[in-house]
């Protein structure tokens, strides 16, 4: 026995999150908190069109959405 307890354990895939937020400070804070929790950030968007494109194309498990992006709901 080599003492390596990690052998044979399957590592789970990180949760992948999309962030849509137009306030830079809030976006950075959310990103930092999620990264500290081990979450993978798949995209950051601060405007509606890039957010919609990411939503269509990115592979993610969850999204954190600001419902009023630069006055657009």
Give the SSE order as H and E letters: EHEHE
What structural class do helix, strand and pairing data support? alpha/beta
Number of DSSP helices? 2
Total strand segments? 3
Mean pLDDT: 87
Summary, kept brief:
The chain is of the alpha/beta class. It contains two helices and three strands; from the N terminus they run E-H-E-H-E.
What descriptors fit this protein?
73 residues, alpha/beta, 3-stranded parallel β-sheet, 2 helices, 3 strands, 32% helix, 21% strand, flat
Question: Would you kindly provide a written description of the structure presented here, covering whatever features stand out?
Answer:
The chain is an alpha/beta fold and 73 residues long. The mean pLDDT is 87. It has a 3-stranded parallel β-sheet, with helices on both faces. It has 2 helices and 3 strands. 32% of the residues lie in helices and 21% in strands. It has helices at residues 24-36, 48-57, and strands at residues 16-20, 40-45, 62-65.
What is the element layout, followed by pairings?
Layout: E1 16-20, H1 24-36, E2 40-45, H2 48-57, E3 62-65
Parallel strand pairs: 1-2, 1-3
């Amino acid at each position: 026995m080599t003492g390596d307890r990690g052998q044979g354990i399957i590592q789970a895939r990180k949760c992948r999150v999309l962030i849509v937020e137009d306030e830079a400070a809030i976006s950075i804070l959310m990103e930092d908190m999620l990264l500290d929790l081990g979450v993978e950030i798949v995209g950051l968007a601060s405007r509606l069109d890039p957010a919609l494109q990411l939503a269509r194309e990115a592979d993610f498990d969850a999204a954190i959405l600001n419902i009023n992006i630069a006055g657009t709901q």
